[in-house]
Amino acid sequence: MTVIRQDDVIQSVADALQYISYYHPVDFIRAVHEAYEREENPAAKDAMAQILVNSRMSATGHRPICQDTGIVTVFCKVGMQVTFEGDMSLTDMINEGVRRAYNHPDNVLRASVLADPDGKRANTKDNTPAVIHYDIVPGHTVDIQVAAKGGGSEAKSKFAMLNPSDSIVDWVLEQVPKMGAGWCPPGMLGIGIGGTAEKAMVLAKESLMDPIDIHELKARGPQTRAEELRLELFEKVNALGIGAQGLGGLTTVLDVKVVDYPTHAANKPVAIIPNCAATRHAHFVLDGSGPADLEAPDINEWPEIAWGDGGQSKRVNLDSITPEEVQTWKSGDTLLLSGKLLTGRDAAHKRMVDMLAKGEALPVDFTNRFIYYVGPVDPVGDEVVGPAGPTTATRMDKFTRTMLEATGLIGMVGKAERGQTAIDAIRDNKAVYLMAVGGAAYLVSKAIRSSRVVAFEDLGMEAIYEFDVQDMPVTVAVDSEGTSVHRTGPKIWQAKIGKIPVTETA
């Protein structure tokens, strides 16, 4: 029997979660760099440059790649010849590892897990509990895969119980455009087929633990139906032209994973789960010799990309901005924001809208101000704020009209596209929506010169902050006329890709 010490499990899980908070998998970096080199859309190329520069900064600075440091998922295979030394259950050991990782004083990670999800939605403060999947297998080791899954990409998961004769390819190509850009492409798609409803979802999630190897598969050729589907979907999803951050371009997915399982004769369950530009997972094996030792990747694996504006963007002073100036901006314009920028996301917006409905005064004056949809990581050392990238803007769509019409707000900053409800409100109020790059949170934080909480401190990372920013890069995603770059860009690039030989885009 192999004896696994309780402390070794706890330490290994904690170390792995710290590790993946600032180290991208090397295969991901190589794939993004290859896509960056091929990209022909300047906007998408710039977005990938920011992702790569941010990743290198995080790797060297040991700070989170993304402000959303995820909900922890664990796949644990326990050998039947293993026994544990300690007084905790294995689930409690894993959760203690999560607790220690997220409260590490040198690299605080954002606690995003809320208990009582349809009630008080109270933050558990330490990101526990993890979602854990167990498999009891022959052997003398404990094999553990940990992942930290961002809420934006998880929110875009899809499931269907298809009829046996239905086309999975057709269903996937129908669903991916509906996913928008909130999952921060380029990334991976995990697809689970078969089993039962819950099995298909688990298959899709577990497939995302595998390395990016689509080009190797293409070189050797498919040997199974699942591999045929991978290649077909990789080509056809990229041909949709959605591109990095939904701006239009040659690369939407870096790989497509397909795993299947026997299913009932009457069913064809299928699930899609995307992995975002903050792909985070690690694998280790415990054999009784001590905690896992995760070797730091060679920093030379990260390309030396000098991201910079190059003088192409308009500088904007948020402290003197007027509605008239906002109305001169056009969809696709790039800006550098400086001055005072308010923040607020889901909980703050709901509270403000509820206050307005009751006739109560808001604690902050939004007249001619911009609000940034963000929940930052707590600062460490001499930081004024931790990584502070944008959250998915569509979650604020239902609050947008009220905020624009009742508060004097003239602009918003977030991630990905806006829905029609928000676009209509933006157009009707001659406001604007600006997009920051998802997956570049540490880079964005370097543009923030000061930070203070100005309202709703009890909401933690969802409180309203006031940032003082300098040259924060954004793109006009919806202008005051209601033109959305997330609608125009993919259409343009889908048409362009249709004219390019497959060998150039696959």
Average pLDDT rating: 95
Helix content: 25-40%
The CATH superfamily of the domain at 314-490 is identified as Fe-S hydro-lyase, tartrate dehydratase beta-type, catalytic domain
Q: What is the straight-line distance between the termini? A: 49 Å
State the major sheet.
Answer: 5 strands, mixed, barrel
CATH fold call of the domain at 314-490: fumarase
Uncertain residue ranges: 502-506
CATH class of the domain at 314-490: Alpha Beta
Shape, please? globular
- Proportion of residues in extended strands: 15-25%
Q: How many distinct beta strands?
A: 19
Strand order of the largest sheet: 14-15-16-17-19
Radius of gyration of CA atoms, rounded to a whole number: 23 Å
CATH architecture verdict of the domain at 314-490: Alpha-Beta Barrel
Secondary-structure-derived class = alpha/beta
What's the helix count?
16
